[in-house]
Amino acid sequence: MNVRESSGKQIAERPDQVKRIDENWYQVRAQSLSYESWYDVVLTESGYACDCPDNQWRKVKCKHIHAVEFSLQIRKQVQSIVINQIETNQCKFCNSTDIFKKGLRKNKTYSLQVYKCRTCNKKFSINLGFEKMKASPQVITSAMQLYFTGESLRNVQKFLELQGVKITHKTVWNWIRKYIGLMESYLDKVTPQVSDKWRADELWIKINGNMKYLFAMMDDETRYWLAQEVANTKHTHDVQNLFRKSRKVAGKKPMTLITDGLHSYKEGYMKEYWTQHYPRTQHIHFASIKGKHDNNKMERMNGEVRDREKVMRGLKKVDTPILTGYQIFHNYIRPHEGLEGQTPSEACGIKIEGDNKWITLIQNAKVSKVNTDKIRGEVS
Fold first, then answer.
1. How many Cα atoms occupy the beta-carbon half-sphere of 103 within 13 Å?
2. Structural domain spans, the chain
3. Domain 197-317 adopts which CATH fold?
4. Burial class (CB in 10 A: 0-12, 13-18, 19+), 375
5. pTM value > 0.90
6. Of 202, 366, 367, 211, nearest to 299 (Cα)?
7. Within 13 Å, how many C-alpha atoms sit on residue 42's CB side?
8. CB-CB contact of 360 with 350 (8 Å)
9. Bridge partners, 25 (sequence order)
10. What percent of the chain has pLDDT over 70?
11. Most exposed among 101, 130, 229, 252, judged by the fewest C-beta atoms under 10 Å?
């Protein structure tokens, strides 16, 4: 490793020295100047080019280019978070692992495996996350999948009737409300490994017949939906809370923030992200449909929400679980062509095991809730 490579590695390993503007354009902080200055590193047909004197005049691969390449390697080596399927292989009464199958317990719609413990001689069944539910986990999660892919509650009801499951559309709604709330509490504790470039935009939606605005923040590289909030107005809404929630979810602030020219974004940026100290978040506030700083990725996500809203003919209330549910669906369930078939969570290093990701999330959320309630009970 030569001197330039070594210097580039040191730059990449220090925080906030390399900023990603887009997939082909990076900025690296100048190391030898006493004032704030950044060099542009741009990907060309012949490789990376930097506007520093070392690359421009000496025609050598400078430390800034090496810093970008090392930062990309570090990004790929981020340790993944794996959410595994939960396989319960112990007695629910005495925690013994000496258990065996003892027939099936049947109800009107499905059968549940019964176990017997050789230690305490008790019989029990395991239905983690779906206790006391009349429908099977597969039916409940199929209903949620159908709903968030665009079907109405009544269409979901009709589909399940063809499978021999007789329920009302209100039952489907109750399932969605129950499990979205459960998963939301669990996923709030998960920190995605997002990039340093974020996008914010707003979308008008109808809630109870009135026009409202959905403000949302999304990571540019992974398309992970960081945060959202519903506002009554567009031009006077304070988006600082949205920016703060996004910062809390990601565990950091962005190095680049892209928005349109709405003045509310500038005010929120000044309140939450701007600082007198360097490195300072760059706010690009002239995004448009076309041009160098287009906001097409954000508009694509807005289109997803718009498609879902059209089926519902508007939302019924501001605190509806539907928006949170679609955010979970967007981040953890729905694969994206722009991410080569990955979900945003997978692009962020969060892998969900199992063929049915809904069941894996619900079971882990249930275990997390039980553990949290146990700790609270011991403290009180």
1. 4
2. 3-77, 87-127, 134-192+323-380, 197-317
3. Nucleotidyltransferase; domain 5 (3.30.420)
4. exposed
5. no
6. 202
7. 6
8. no
9. 22, 42
10. 93
11. 101
